[in-house]
């Protein structure tokens, strides 16, 4: 039976006793805050950044009433990892599934959380996410069910990087001629808290309140633990640019969940995590209880010597919460050593007893070459030499209402000239084209996507790209170094116990192979989760089963050609 049909039937069969409606009312505002001791305008939800944690149980309905009080900015909120079965219009992706929420207006999202696990929500309009509009979604199992591992307490942490300039300033620089790169972040935050060295400001400010280490906002994040107890620590990354490593001094981390799926447990000292990923690790407070320990995050895959590590404190009760560890923070992994990062990626397998077997073969293969290019003198990121641009009318509306002139009807390429393209060098022809065309997938077919990395426009440079797929989970069939070989590498796919995820890295000069079922009617973004990269065109859109999509709510309309369709 089709997965879509099974899920709908399953959702309908959930009894009213088991499933609840959980309502949230959010006010989105701009406020001055200093999460790393540097005061700047940030976006908050009910005065918080990170925003309130949504806690629910599997099959619950979530209703979030969002009021946009940003004065001059639109917004949209994406529910990252929630597949939106039957509600593709509430995926929260501006330009793909909805028109943006205008300043001074209220928009209501309503959806079912159909799977337990650790998920996220965040802004999906422009580059707003990095200004603080993000938070966690934690979905538990129904009453009476339990995970295949035990723990005493459940905690969650969001890791982030942090810039002092505005996203508007960054966007203007990225779109300018000459190109102005955003640079490396000024700080790393652990659950919304970091520490910037105010004395390092290039131009000391006459405003003593601009940067002040006495601000309570930037006191280190502290997690209090009871000696001998085991904690499920849900770790998520909402970085706008950086790949990170995370560690707790002197403690092993046992990985048990990734993006909502149970993992065959394995132990790490450093957890490598990429933007948009979520993990659960088990950590036991089994060290000397008379002292506290460092929690640290560090940038990997990029040289960022001026970005200090994120620091928090693992506090053993009853030690004083403000007692610093007696040691220096642990050393960071070597930033450009890809070997341990590749090894962790390859170690993540589905847990025995929870394996969802992928289809043995696919119906379609799409190869996506990730490159950096130029269009009319502007620096862009491209996929198969095509840089993505958003249409004025969201795809879901255009497709459902048959607005054929709302976007380019020519689909993007299914691949690139792999026989002649050298992924290890700067290309002599740096030019690309732009398009808002989409990939149309036959409904309920199996699709393979090969993400192929390559050299940027800088010699000897290839970046890590975390790719996130909306509306689906996919099987991770394999990773590799160099150029993907469809004859040699496809034969080595893991079809026995591949993990399912919604976000996955493609490593420098490497490839990542995915497989998913096109079984969720809608229009779904698939893009690099680095804010500046997606802004610069590193993404695609998949459309499937549009004829099965229900009546679109008028609340998602009001922009582009949908203005005439808006019926409040």
Automatic annotation (TrEMBL):
Q: Which InterPro entries match?
A: Cu-oxidase-like_N, Cu-oxidase_2nd, Cu-oxidase_C, Cu-oxidase_fam, Cu_oxidase_CS, Cu_oxidase_Cu_BS, Cupredoxin, CuRO_3_AAO
Q: Pfam families given for it?
A: Cu-oxidase (PF00394), Cu-oxidase_2 (PF07731), Cu-oxidase_3 (PF07732)
CDD domains recorded? CuRO_3_AAO (cd13893)
Signal sequence, renumbered to the chain: 1-19
Q: For this protein, what is the EC number?
A: 1.10.3.3
Question: What Gene Ontology cellular-component terms does the record carry?
Answer: extracellular region
State the superkingdom. Answer: Eukaryota
Q: What Gene Ontology molecular function terms does this protein carry?
A: copper ion binding; L-ascorbate oxidase activity
What's the cofactor?
A: Cu cation
Sorted UniProt keywords: Copper, Disulfide bond, Glycoprotein, Metal-binding, Oxidoreductase, Repeat, Secreted, Signal
The record's section on PANTHER family has: L-ASCORBATE OXIDASE, MULTI-COPPER OXIDASE
Please describe the quaternary structure of this protein.
Dimer.
Protein's name in the database: L-ascorbate oxidase
Q: Which organism is it from?
A: Hibiscus trionum
